[in-house]
Design brief:
With 311 residues, the chain is of the alpha+beta class. Helix content is 29%, strand content 28%. The model has no long low-confidence stretch (mean pLDDT 93). Bound molecules: magnesium ion.
Length: 311
């Protein structure tokens, strides 16, 4: 069983109640607590030593990543983060100064985004450190951007560039909170997700939730310098384009807008965020699956993104 089959089984008949507007299957849960103009966003995420960070990685950056991943999911809904709880599980033997440095990484990012660290839990886990973050945020009522709103004909956009993150920037990425909120305030964004598992995997989440397909223009996919460099290394067998499609941990935004909004979005973006690339990489189509188009024609993309339990 792969990660997504397992998730599907586990989430088939979850208990629910009147508070749940959008449950499992999006970047955050959306809950209605009766606040006049706002809905609550609720998210949890964990990082594990040896999987999401290497043993001995700079501890401030480990802390940064633990919180940034959750913030990125709040961004994917165009929300504003409010408060977090931190659970840290430590091996029997640990270095106190490392744990303090992890917390200073968490705290620095929290302050930057006006997020309260409202409590947490410390526990033990043999051998590997684990940090889990639970986060609440707010979004104006009716303004949360879901994965399920993509429509045939929509233009598909991605921020930044993709691939090679684990070899370069995965411990220090900046969650795209301001960018996502600005997009939602100024344009009708149909669907949005943050790229954690890789473009090929995460775009499929939008397609599945929206019951549509996608056609990507190969030459337009923004391949990162890290992915290009890695492909020149002796140990790598991954061409840069495949790296950009499947590496994961990019934490950029992927979203769709009506085709009539594509040029206005691009023009306004360049003025608002001149230092961050925004690229139209293709369009939403009727049907299903991802088609890649280049000079030699069209082919179905079979690659998926990163999966935790893939064999
Ligand atoms: Mg996400």
């Amino acid at each position: 069983v792969n990660e997504f089959e397992l998730i599907e089984k586990l989430t088939r008949s979850l208990p629910t109640n009147k508070s749940v507007v959008t449950g499992s299957g999006d970047d955050c849960a959306v809950l209605d607590f009766g606040l006049p103009d706002k809905l609550l966003l609720f998210k949890t995420d964990a990082i594990v030593e040896g999987i999401h960070f290497k043993t001995g990685a700079p501890p401030e950056k480990i802390g940064h990543k633990a919180l940034a991943r959750c913030l990125s999911d709040i961004a994917a809904m165009a929300g504003t983060p409010t408060a977090a709880l931190i659970t840290i599980a430590l091996p029997k033997k640990f270095d106190e100064t490392v744990v303090e440095a992890i917390y200073s990484g968490i705290n620095a990012l929290a302050r930057k985004h006006d997020v309260a660290i409202a409590g947490g839990e410390t526990t033990t886990n043999p051998e590997r450190m684990l940090i889990s973050v639970a986060l609440v945020g707010l979004v104006p009522r009716g303004k949360a951007i879901l994965r399920s709103g993509a429509e045939a004909g929509d233009a598909i956009f991605v921020t930044g560039d993709l691939g090679g993150s684990l070899a370069s920037r995965h411990l220090e990425f900046e969650p795209r909170l301001a960018e996502a909120r600005w997009l939602a305030e100024h344009f009708s964004i149909h669907a949005m997700i943050d790229l954690s598992d890789g473009l090929a995997g995460d775009l499929r989440h939008i397609l599945k939730a929206s019951h549509v397909g996608a056609e990507l223009l190969t030459t337009s996919i923004p391949v990162s310098r890290a992915a290009k460099l890695a492909s020149k290394g002796e140990s790598s067998t991954k061409p840069p384009l495949l790296a950009a499609l499947t590496d994961g941990e990019d934490f950029e935004l992927l979203f769709t807008v009506a085709s009539k909004d594509a040029v206005p979005v691009l023009d306004a973006w360049k003025k608002q965020f001149p230092k961050l690339a925004l690229t139209c990489i293709g369009k939403i189509t009727p049907g299903e699956g991802i088609t890649l188009r280049d000079k030699s024609g069209k082919r179905l993309l079979t690659a998926h993104g990163y999966e935790h339990f893939a064999k």
